[in-house]
Amino acid sequence: MNNIRNFSIIAHIDHGKSTLADRMIQLCDLVSDREFQDQILDSMEIERERGITIKSQTICLPFTAKDGKLYTLNLIDTPGHVDFSYEVSRALTCCEGALLLIDAAQGVEAQTLANLYLAMDNDLEIIPVINKIDLPSADPETVALQIEEDLGLDSEFVQFCSAKTGKGVAEILEAIVQILPPPEGDPASQLQALIFDADYDPFRGTIISIRLINGTVKPGDIIRFMSNGREYKVEEVGLFKLNREPQKQLSAGQVGYILAGIKTVEDTRPGDTITLKDDPCSEPLPGFKKVQQVVFSSIYPIATDEYEDLAAALERLKLNDAALTFEKDSSVALGFGFRCGFLGLLHLEVIQERLEREFDIALILTVPSVQYVFHLADGTKKIIDNPAHFPDPSHIDRIEEPFIKATILIPERYMGVVMTLCMDRRGENTSFHYPMPGRIEFQCELPLAEVIYDFYDRLKSVTQGYGSFDYEMIDYRKSDLVKLDILVNGEFVDALSQLVHRNNARARGLHACEMLKEEIPRQMFKIAIQAAIGGTIIARTNVSAMRKDVTAKCYGGDITRKRKLLEKQKAGKKRMKTVGNVDIPQTAFLSVLKSDQ
Q1: Which domains does the chain have, with CATH numbers?
Q2: Are strands 231-233 and 222-225 parallel, antiparallel or unpaired?
Q3: Which of 36, 201, 243, 414 is most open to solvent, judged by the fewest CB atoms within 10 Å of its CB?
Q4: Do the Cβ atoms of 212 and 254 come closer than 8 Å?
Q5: Which of 306, 347, 345 is nearest to 324 (CA)?
Q6: What does the alpha-carbon distance between residue 20 and residue 163 come to, in Å, rounded to a whole number?
Q7: What is the CA radius of gyration of the chain?
Q8: What pTM value is reported for the model?
Q9: How many other C-beta atoms lie within 10 A of the C-beta of residue 171?
């Protein structure tokens, strides 16, 4: 066990975690130059396209140190985006140390701090690493000073490297061996293993990623899950190299996988403890703290007969992504579907793309919303995230909505535009300080509903990509909310209803009407698209009718002949309108979510 090191790479988004992992893999000769590809641990197609890490990945690196000993380094590469911070917290539970990676040009950013606090909560040994020292704009000395002053880490342990060129990576591996502690645990004790991730293989069943705290496990053992008491016979244990490598056994301190022919996805829960049936441990490991979903949206299959496939697909994704929650839901317009909870809009987009690509299911999503607390006149309290469950307004005493504390790091010159953006989104209690010359840390309390829509995109564009953003939930506050309904040809479309603040209702309603006007095809009769609060119409647009020129044959003569033909046409269209149905295309539902501003 003295020759094992378990560590994670944590950093703000785009500071070079996956690239550093690539260099370490090459340095340890795990992959030949011919088979190598950039971001080798990002195995999902969507990760490669977007250039981000979504799933934390584990790999076991054999490394011969300067003292001639062979060490086993278990590296867990983590995502940097705030929407996937839950992946980071799970990865850190399995480690004794972490590399805190900081960009030599950008310095300490919002997510750097958030991840540092996560690592400190887990009592990890932290090695600060300054990356991208080969950039023309790099200023490693200033960043090293910043690490000491802002983060309170000892600057003598700071490592300098360029993950792109490979400079300094061997020194980092040496520092991991020297500075980070080996895992603690007793291989001879009862088996205690923590499940920190799981994946599904259609041929082998569920692949469980585990960190062994105590004991050993080998093929043939009967294991038991402590949360539900299910028992399985182990078929194979092994380590994650670039492919799964079977081993004779795994013992305390190691990170690896177990295959036990587990066909049912629900049995495997990240955070659960595995022990042996014959010699069980006395108590389970503490596991992970429950994750808080902040964005809710309903997902419906376009073809109603794909409902069962969607249910199975969500079960599979939940195995791989413990932050996703879902429950059954139904809509008049769209049939049966699921109400899902996400950690943010990027998380929602990623789940939607994975469902469409990996499981080949075409989907419709409703407008994302957050959880509101309704205090009713009779003293009861209701938590509502779906506009369809909005109570009768006459029964509502007050409504509370969730507020977050946003931390935004920006260069000084963007202070004005960012402040305006926050004020437009009903921001309050703003404060700021200067962590280093030329950079401002701006803090503001905002309603979560204003942030999930398009706040991050707007922040990136007004700060030309230099703004970094992190948030935490604080509390619920009283708010003046209304239910905004959309009517097409006089019919309510329940999937387009949204809960909005009264001051924003008119703008949001007008935007939805304009977007639908672009998407709904013209009919033989005029279609009215309206936005309403209760019985009051607050916005309207029309899709004009296609019409035949019935007066083309009339030339000259009395005007009454033309008028008679037009009146006849008008009566026909009126009759058509009363019986006509308007089919709303799939793109219309998505267009309402997109914001042009």
Answers
A1: 4-179 (3.40.50.300), 192-276 (2.40.30.10), 295-365 (3.30.70.870), 372-479 (3.30.70.240), 483-593 (3.30.70.2570)
A2: antiparallel
A3: 243
A4: yes
A5: 347
A6: 5
A7: 29
A8: 0.68
A9: 13
Among 174, 155, 96, 166, residue whose Cα is nearest residue 131? 166
Pairing outcome for strands 273-276 and 244-247 = unpaired
Given pLDDT bands bounded at 50, 70 and 90, which one contains residue 41?
A: low
CA distance 395 to 388: 16
Q: Report the C-alpha gap between 144 and 146 in whole angstroms.
A: 5
The pLDDT tens digits for 386-410 are 787 888 888 888 888 888 888 888 8
Distance from the first to the final alpha carbon of the chain: 56
Cβ–Cβ under 8 Å, residues 343 and 86: yes
| Residue 366 · residue 376 · CB < 8 Å | no
How far out from the chain centre does Cα 133 lie?
30
Q: Which two tokens stand for residue 292?
A: 């808080």
Burial class (CB in 10 A: 0-12, 13-18, 19+), 153: middle
Q: What pLDDT band is residue 597 in, cutting at 50, 70 and 90?
A: very low
Q: Is 29 exposed, middle or buried (0-12, 13-18, 19+ CB in 10 A)?
A: exposed
Amino acid at 327: E
What distance in Å separates the CA atoms of residue 122 and residue 289, rounded to the nearest whole number?
12
Tokens describing residue 114: 């958030």
* β-bridge pairing 428-436 and 372-376: unpaired
What tokens were used for 84? Answer: 């996937």
The string of DSSP letters for 46-72 reads HHHHHT---S-EEEEEEEE-TTS-EEE
